[in-house]
Specification:
heterodimer; A: about 280 residues; mainly alpha; B: mainly alpha; 14 helices; transmembrane helix (chain A); MetI-like (chain A); cell membrane (chain A)
Amino acid sequence: MGLRNRNIITKSLRYIVLIVFAVITILPFWNMIVVSLKPFQFAMSYPPQIVPTDLTFANYKEAWVTGSFGHYFKNSFLITVAATIGGTLVACMLAFALSRYRFPGRRIIFGLFIGTMMIPGITFIIPQYLLLKNLHLLNTYTGLTLLYIAGSIPFHMFLYKGFFDDIPKELEEAVIIDGGNRWTFFSRVAIHISLPAVATSVIMLFNGNWGEFLGALTFMSDPEKWTLPVAIRMLQGAHTTEYGLIFAASIISMLPIIILFLTFQRFIIKGIAAGAVKG
Amino acid sequence: MQNSLTLESAAPTGKPRRSWLRRHYGIYLFALPAIVLFLTFSVYPILYSFVKSFSDWQLLGASPFVGLRNYRTVLSDPNVGIAFKNALLNFVVSIPIQVVFGLLLAIVLDRPIRGRGFFRALFYIPVLVTWIVVIQIYMYMFNKDYGLINYLLIKSHLIGEGIDWLGSPTRTLVSVFAMGGWKGIGWAMLIFLAGLQSIPTDLYEASGLDGASKWQQFRYITVPGLRNTTVFVIVLLSIGAFNVFDQVFLLFNGAAPSDYDVPLSMIYNKAFSDLNFGYSAALSYVMAAVIILISLIQFKLLPKNSGMEG
């Protein structure tokens, strides 16, 4: 068999793998989109429709207006953006200190953060509830945001640290000689060099906070304060069979994270390669 | 740095030597926000619930110290065994799916190929979708009467009539864990892609010049080069598999029968349904101990000398 033929076979095999997996990946979403675009009485008809007919946006309108998903969207968005900005800044600064400087307590701090990553969050959800209650932060955006930030620090600190460890000492000395201080070096140089880490971390933070369910359910019992995942779950409880409505709400909830991911995705692999899998 | 410090302390300016705190406070300021938040919202609650795991913890009123009683109850509770067995099932079902297919896709998408960016993004999208949405799709697609899964299986003559996927604990859990594998393939793919990128390309070029075949290159460069990445992926997936919660919790709208329990849903139900907080806390720490043990064993497998540099 000629080399040329072998190449064609390998190439076709690759495309077959990709197409099979593309179908497996898309099919559930396709199913969901079709159902969300149909009048609700057709959601549970057999056979399931793969090519949609009689489309309507009624489910989307109902979810957004009658189902208050516009409001939940705003709640989710505010909390997620605040927790993502806060988490990025706080984890990044801690990583900077731990990575660039030797100071007393450094090892203990690092060990504490990494060690707690192994304890499941559910373990301390009750004390967190009591704590928020005592601080009068239950049912507040601030309370949930602070919990999200605190919970995200260990992993993201770890991610940033991998990047900061690689910045040569000479670069920092150059900044100091030019009259800068640590903050200048951190905010003007270190962050810029670490943009792949920032992009990776921002997407992971946004994704984690946007989809977080249990904390939002436990700490935000006031329906006014629900986030999207909690609202979708409540919709499921109230209208078990209205899949069109549930899927329309689900698709609304998926859009921001997918848009954000598509915008930043080219950084991610680089970010993970340098930050997490160095071995 | 070293120079400027010695100069400063040697210079006879009459200025008092900067104290330890003054030299370091700038660094601590960087670390302070993270430390304060973390001590308040994570460390304090962890210690609090650990202490309470030795008491008969009621939310209101006193919580008398009962020593190891809660822990003894945990170890003799048959439902704990079921919950761990179910988590193990998740481990067995979802990890091979993610590792095998994630690796396959990463290898295919590591080389220049038309539509590479599109496919990479597409396969990652399930990772981004929150469990509440995935569970809705799952319940719809795996429905016995109108679900797409049964329809496709019947149409392709693999089964005669619809399977009741939600008919028994094992069947339900296997199918929902398989869906978890589906959701996680993109994550594994991404980590493997990152791992592949850190294998130097000149290794392939040099071996190509020496006449190595594609298979030999795969066997002797790619496989050893991905060893650490694979261990990393498996360690994280194992921790994740034992931390399974959202899908099981959401499947039953928070009221899972004990046959379906995994450790975390049991912890949650013991606290919030049975209001048995002390027991729930003790179970949490048994669970944490198991996870730490699994992680330590697996980190031992990580070779000291990383082979990633080639």
